[in-house]
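User: Show me an example of a complex going from sequences to structure tokens.

Assistant: Sure. Here are the input components:
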Amino acid sequence: MSHAPARRLSAAEVKLPERHPLRKAGLFAAAAGALALVAVLALAAGDPRQALASYLVAFLYWLSIALGGLFFTLAMLASRAGWCVVVRRLAEHLAGTLPLYAVLFVPLAVGAAHLWPWWGGADPAEDPILAGKAGWLDPGFFWVRAAVYLGSWALLGWWFRRRSLAQDTTADPGVTRRLQSLAAPALLVYAVTQTFAAFDWIMSLDPHWYSTIFGVYFFAGQAVAVFAALALLAMALERGAKADGERRPGPLAGVVTVEHYHDLGKLLFAFVVFWAYIGFSQFMLIWYANIPEETVWYAHRLEHGWEGATWALAIGHFVLPFFFLLPRGVKRNRATLAAAAVWMLAVHYLDLYWLAMPAIHPEGFRPHLLDLVALVGVGGLALGALVFALARPALVPVGDPRLPESLTFENM
Amino acid sequence: MKLPKLPVPPWRRSAGPAPDTVLLAEYSGPDGLLAAADRVRRAGWSDWDAHTPFPVHGMERAMGLRPSRVPWYVLVLGLGGAAAGMTLQWWVSAEAYPLVISGKPYFSWPAFVPIMFECGVLGGALGAVAGFLAESRLPRHHHPLFESPRFERVSDDGFFLSLSAAGGDEGDRALRLLEETGPARIERLGPDGVAEVPAGAASRRGPAATPERGVPPGGAP
């Protein structure tokens, strides 16, 4: 109720407990990740192209979740949303891991020549289309752009998290005002950089092909991934450490409620639809115009065994979750929402795989052991970095002036 | 006592005979009304409602309202609209007047998806409006509550609970129940117009206190 006494939280109440299982999981994940990356490196000698492609998909997968965290943080600040304050810190932590991806990009920058087919340049007489794109698809320029994308994400993720953490002790509402006013220009930077990153890293695997909506498609996947990830992360933090054979309530128990999960579920549902809308818009325009240099991209994905992946994606990433997430009760029940979130995170990997891999294996759907090893490798480090980020500070922005509003938030 | 005859929409006619009396209790704020709604629900009354100038959190639980059925109208009419949109395009383009357009098959479903989608949205939106009207028994030209001049404040700062009851014993029990919820005032709306019920009117002549029905005292809200 609006006039109920405002509930406040102290930072100590919402810190990760010393013996919380997530701490060990983070350490274990980081170690496993490092080992797996060494394995990728060892296996890369035999088939560098496959290794780099597997690594690219894994890199994009975990990056898209962290970038989604940046999007969530910025969008919620820019829209001055009150409901989400109790989960916004988790998104800030996700975005805070973005500097890691600047480091993890190094193998791709080094091995780029094996992966992106335009790397060697093109003869204008033989391939006028590619020669015409030489100005953009230039190795030096590619590296500079990658540095700009990764640098701006790392900077934004680090800065917004740091400012928000500082507010925990000062409880200064001016910080919120400043973050809110800076979130809009930061969103602009995010939108432009993630669009061109999608062009550079995924679309240019098929350098003759282009689609102007491609960046929006990449963004839609990020949004789906982050709402799923935030719901799962909040649920994990509602569970506490085990003591005397009993599980204690976790730091977010009673803080993140079914009302917040309902909203995360609604956003997850909405972006599942948005993803399908964008994906179909791209497909339909290309199908309708029927220009060979455009349709070739879909031709690769609708034959030689890839058609199975395409249909699996359409059904698994849209039809099933659409009907599953439709009822209100599913979004207000932790078990069903968690099932939907895990499912969406799984098909999100398929989505990125489907974007990148047909360019490497046009001859057919060829899952490789390296796909799995690279996924574990990057994912282990990503999870380790996330646990490192959320191990010490409060898990809720306790100094945010909208926190009482979020704590008592109710859907109609 | 008899209420004035109201124009009753056809789907409302099965609702049974009009109540003899409508009691209108006014509360000073949402908290008092919430507590009163909780109490009236526990007492097991069926024909009653709460009226507030803005949505009050927790009122659905206090009143024991079941989830709205409007989403089902939206689902059925939305899917129906989408199916109708696709069928129409298939029939026009592939059956009634087949035309080859840019060398594509007569039934080129990808081209029909946007219109199917829009028809689904249209059906869903119309379903939401129709479902809302049907579930809230609208349109309705008049309601006995509008007889009370104070009730106009329901769209400003008034918090009301209205309760319909038959005459005699049931009316007395209803009045007693409402008095126990501590309203600022109670009005009785009948064929003779609106009359304020003096405080404590029911307790002076009333029967035994209202037995609690349905949910046991202290049960889950």
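The lines above are the inputs; the final block is the predicted structure for all two components together. The beta strands of chain B are 21-27, 48-51, 159-165, 185-190, 193-197.
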